[in-house]
Each structure stands twice: as structure tokens, then as C-alpha cells.
Amino acid sequence: MSGASARRTRENSLRRQGFQQVAGVDEVGRGCLAGPVVAAAVVLDPQKPIWKLRDSKLLNSNVRSILYEEILAKASAFSVSCVDAPEIDRINIHNASLKAMSNAVLNMDPKPDFVLVDGFPLPNIDILQEAIVRGDRLCSAIAAASIVAKVTRDRMMLEFHKKDPRYGFDQNKGYPTKIHLAAVGRYGYSKLHRKSFRPRSLL
User: Fold this and answer.
1) The pLDDT of residue 202
2) Cα 138 to Cα 165: distance, rounded to the nearest angstrom
3) What gap in Å lies between CA 121 and CA 89, rounded to an integer?
4) Less Cβ around it within 10 Å: N or C end of the chain?
């Protein structure tokens, strides 16, 4: 693993202010050519610390899987939400990402009383929130959410690969790698592909 661990500083500060359920929220899959955008919301239990949480992109798949299981076992609450390719095409990827993150928060039980969001503030949630740029590298709750979202989405893409192995989703997870783009050039888009995404090599 590389990079410093995300810290609990902001969550601890909010708890000292009286907030009990502080959720971190993040999404994965914005830059993919195929597959859903997946968001997760996680409330960490301060009595059950999880060490070495960090942005999922800084972890290898084995470490992510280990931390994923630990997060689900120790978290006070968590939720996952997906927006599929047709919906992404209909409302665009930015709005789809916000929708997935908002739904992840609103589907939590119990509901959080404060939300820490990676990047952009969330619309349509009546809960106090704070958007943190690069929050997945700074805030432990957001880092935990990034891990849950990433592992969930990767596993979904593995299942999609089993049903249709032509595009190599087991390796590229829907990102526009050379092999993936070559497969699209040969077979065209599948039902999982975002029709509104047009990589330059396909134009």
C-alpha cells in the first residue's frame, strides 16, 4: 500500500459537536465506458476502528477486499446504490453520480445526521453535509465508502464478464483500455455500454 491513511479528524470534530451518525459518501465508475456508476455511504463506528483506510485507488484488489469485509462487519450502517448505463445516458454522468450518492445516503438505516461527500455537494437530501475535495484521501469515512463502492462495482463487472466475455470486463472493469476499445470496434456496444460515451478512438 502507498500513501498516507485517511484520518478521522473531521468525523471526530463533528461528533464532538453532537452529531452521532456521520456518513462518508463516494462513487466509482465515472470514467468507464461500460457498466453502472456505483456509490456507497458508510457510517463508521468510533468504537470499532479500522486501520489504514485510504482511497480505494491506492489499494490493490486483495487489500481492498480485506478492508471491504472489515468495513461491512464493523460499520454502524452502510448502503450501496447504482445507476445503470441507460440512466447515465439519459441524465449524464455527473447527474448520475450525484443521484447514486444521494440514493445511497437516503437508503441508509438509520439515516445519518451529517454527510461528508467526496467532491460535490449532493442535491435533494435534507441532511447537513460538507463536500470535501479529494475527500477519499483525507477522510476515513469517505475512504471507507470508496472501498465499498469499488469492490461492489468490480464484483458486478466480473459477473457481467461471465455473461459476456467479449469485452474483457474481468480485466478492464469497463474502463476504456486498448483491448476494450478494440472489442467495441469489433463487436459494437453491448447493453452495458454508455451510448453517450464516445472515446476519440471510436469517433
Assistant:
1) 61
2) 37
3) 22
4) C
C-alpha span between 171 and 179 (Å, rounded): 10
Cα–Cα distance, 105 to 112 (Å, whole number): 7
Which residue range forms the structural domain that includes residue 80? 9-154
Q: Is 1 exposed, middle or buried (0-12, 13-18, 19+ CB in 10 A)?
A: exposed
Q: DSSP secondary structure string, 61-111? A: HHHHHHHHHHHHHH-SEEEEEEE-HHHHHHH-HHHHHHHHHHHHHHT-SSP
Whole-angstrom CA distances from 192 to 83, 137, 156, 181 are 11, 30, 11, 14
Give the total number of structural domains in the chain.
1
Angle at 200 between CA 199 and CA 203, to 5 degrees: 95
**Residue 200 placed within a domain:** no
Whether 116 is covered by a domain: the verdict is yes
* 113 CB-near residues (< 8 Å, 6+ apart): 19, 20, 21, 22, 127, 128
- For residues 7 and 135, what is the distance between their CA atoms, to the nearest angstrom? 10
Residue 194 belongs to some domain of the structure: no
pTM of the model: 0.94
The 10s digit of each residue's pLDDT in 12-67 is 999 999 999 999 999 999 999 999 999 999 999 999 999 889 889 889 999 999 99
In a domain, 57, yes or no: yes
